[in-house]
Amino acid sequence: MKLSFQNHKKHLFRNIWAKRLPFHFFMLGVAGVMTWSLLTKEDPLPIQILIGVLALFFGIGGCLMVAQDIKMIITGQRPVVATDEGLYLPKKFIEWSRIEGFKMGRDMSGYDEIGIVTNDADEEIAAKRFALTRWLLRIEYKKNGYIHGISSDDYSGKPQEFKDELDAALKRYQDRIERNKSYYG
């Protein structure tokens, strides 16, 4: 697997459906059963109404997640893309010049993730609008040493292999900068 992501659509398809599809079906099933049970009873209890509303809420959320996953597969959107300019994450772009390195870590749920160590994490935390967001990012930064992570849903393969490929891409960028410095003096 290379960072060019030539076969990424196939890997992404396999990765998404293997990890998320059972959850999606479970949520849709719960929502369907609860909605059906509410519609068939003449006088539901308040707790049944509450459970039905919650199940409907999560069912709609499950439908939206399935639609987003299908759109990502059909359009070929890639959750993580490395270019000459930097690293595109699902909702963020980080330039290579800001990246110091990558390290293995765990997210708050305990799943493996690849952390992106940046040289301006303190400034980025301080620039956040909400105090709660700043506080949570500081905790994450103290715990792991990074504030940006790449979830295992965003790549296929083994985490260490993907981290090694990211390290190689960062090394290529740093070598290119050094060559330019030596060439231009």
Structural features, described:
It is elongated and about 85 Å long. It has five helices and six strands. The strands form two sheets. It has a three-stranded antiparallel β-sheet, with no helix packed on it. Strands 4-5-6 form a three-stranded antiparallel β-sheet, covered by helices on one side. Helix 1 (8-40) packs antiparallel against helix 2. With 185 residues, the protein is of the alpha+beta class. The longest helix has 33 residues, at 8-40. It has two domains: 8-75; 82-184, no CATH class. 59% of the residues lie in helices and 16% in strands.
Features:
185 residues; alpha+beta; three-stranded antiparallel β-sheet; 5 helices; elongated; disordered N terminus
The biggest sheet amounts to: 3 strands, antiparallel
* Uncertain residue segments: 1-13
Give the % helix.
55-70%
- Residue share in β-strands: 15-25%
Let me know the number of strands: 6
Instruction: Tell me the distance between the termini.
Output: 36 Å
Shape: elongated
Give the strand order, joined by hyphens, for the main sheet: 1-2-3
Average pLDDT: 78
- Helix/strand/pairing class, anyone? alpha+beta
The DSSP helix count reads 5
- Radius of gyration, Cα only, in angstroms? 21 Å
Order of helices and strands: HHEEEEEHHEH
- What number of structural domains do the residues give? 2
